[in-house]
Specification:
Helices cover 40% and strands 11% of the residues. By secondary structure, the protein is an alpha/beta fold. It comes from Gossypium klotzschianum.
Length: 220
Amino acid sequence: MQPMVEEKLQGLVQVQPVSFMVSDGFLWWTLESATKFGFPSLVFTGINQFVSSVTKAVFEDKLLVGVESDDELITMTQFPWIKVTRNDFNILMPNPTNSSREFVIDQMKKSTSNSFRYIVNSFHELEKVYVDSWNSEATPKVWCVEPLCLAEPEREPQKKPFWIQWLDQKLAQGCSVLYVAFGSQAEVSSEQLQQIAMGLQESKANFLCVLRKKRIRIIG
């Protein structure tokens, strides 16, 4: 993906100057791209400042080291009114058996810490304690950009899509529904999709599977 983005950037900077680039925190390599073309990189993850500050404080203070139970409540040092457990941070815990995940997390941390600013989908008055705590000692500094929700004019009531009607029906019947999705960046082969589709069908479970439009015909 990086070469394609840089190709677009190359064409863009030849037409007009670029002031900065805002990119998803998971795309750590965008910092390299911004540096290459000489403009600042701002990182955005979509999560609120509470989560960022709590996560940083937990690992900074090594609160999870030596904890035997995944459900043990641990009082935070920097925010003593908050209690956490190991289960709250499983996805971020070191895992020597998954080198790919460790690499991604490490690259994300390095990229974020070296970015020009950290954009948060919040406002200062809502998360003042956590924004101020972060900005007093961490880098990059946080910029709150208010809730990013576009206002829409009222629309005429429309008929619900068939899948919403199906979900409503299952809710009324008291049936659970399995939600299946692979994320926007996962590359799942046609063979894998076929096997997953067969497994879902044979399980007899109610499921809703989200796929890219071009992949729908694969499992028909």
